[in-house]
Amino acid sequence: MSRIVFLNGSFLPIEEAKVPFMDRGFLFGDGIYEGIAVLGGHLVDNEAHLERLERSLREVRIPNPYTREEWTQLEEELARRNGLTEGFIYFQVTRGVAERDFMFPENTTPTVAMFTQAKSIVNSPAAETGIAVITVPDLRWKRRDIKSINLLAQVLAKQAAKEAGAQEAWMVEDGFVTEGGSSSGFIVTKEGRIVARPLSNAILPGITRQSLLALSKEAGIELEERPFTVEEACDAAEAFLTSASNFVLPIVSIDGRPIGNGKPGPVTKKLRAIYIRMATAQRMAAE
Ligand SMILES: Cc1ncc(COP(=O)(O)O)c(C=O)c1O
């Protein structure tokens, strides 16, 4: 079966999907994206992702080409056409195609592109072993709350992680961890409390983060919303990350220093199980 993508109103084999040379996404990184998990053929936390998309588009003044219902239909149809039962749906909206000039072009239609990636999120070897992270300076701009397609700093951060034998980079500003290259970062104190950096323009408001913090509250796990340093993270009982493409993943070392006993910790394992239960329940409710 050929891989089918969605581009500007049509479902096409990927080989036929072409974006014009003068697309502002290509020339300026002038666009917004989203990434949503699919589990059992159903979208996880879709409403919250679409709400974040609406906000990001509004902040950079790109018109939203679809309603929430239309976006959902497109996502579901693309998953169906690709036989996607577990994995990821990526989509982006750019300001469109126009002669290169910095200012917004007039009467330009946004470019919409969407594709799927199959991936085992629940049965993940990384969840069993935990992952290593390195720390790097946070080189990004000052509106990280917007899910912009400008990802050069994250590309460099994650490549540095790979070259150091790690799987994620934690970005650091003024001594405090902001977040991972493509994930939200957390630690667990020796008293069993979760520490998460509060939302601001310094980090992306992770949708998995939002769901997980609500679930952990229900489970009676205490939360401290405050920034934490690399030193505090290295001394923590546990560390973990969240993202739509991984749910919850244990972090077992930072810059080569083991966290806790160097194995996935009990609070992280519990949170991962709680999150998977919630995502599975969403799927069953949709069936
Ligand atoms: C910088 C950054 N932070 C956090 C996240 C996690 O967000 P979410 O849970 O919505 O996938 C991502 C995901 O791509 C990201 O790129």
From TrEMBL:
Q: In which pathway does it act?
A: Amino-acid biosynthesis; L-isoleucine biosynthesis; L-isoleucine from 2-oxobutanoate: step 4/4; Amino-acid biosynthesis; L-valine biosynthesis; L-valine from pyruvate: step 4/4; Amino-acid biosynthesis; L-leucine biosynthesis; L-leucine from 3-methyl-2-oxobutanoate: step 4/4
What EC designation does it have?
2.6.1.42
For this protein, the record's InterPro entries field holds: Aminotrans_IV, Aminotransferase-like, BCAT-like_C, BCAT-like_N, Class-IV_PLP-Dep_Aminotrnsfr
PANTHER family on file:
AMINO-ACID AMINOTRANSFERASE, AMINODEOXYCHORISMATE LYASE
Q: Does the keyword Amino-acid biosynthesis apply?
A: yes
GO CC annotations on file = cytosol
This protein's name = Probable branched-chain-amino-acid aminotransferase
Xref: CDD domains: D-AAT_like
Q: Which cofactor does it need?
A: pyridoxal 5'-phosphate
UniProt family annotation: Belongs to the class-IV pyridoxal-phosphate-dependent aminotransferase family.
Q: Which GO terms describe its molecular function?
A: branched-chain-amino-acid transaminase activity
Give GO terms for biological process: amino acid biosynthetic process; branched-chain amino acid biosynthetic process
> What species is this protein from?
Microvirga vignae
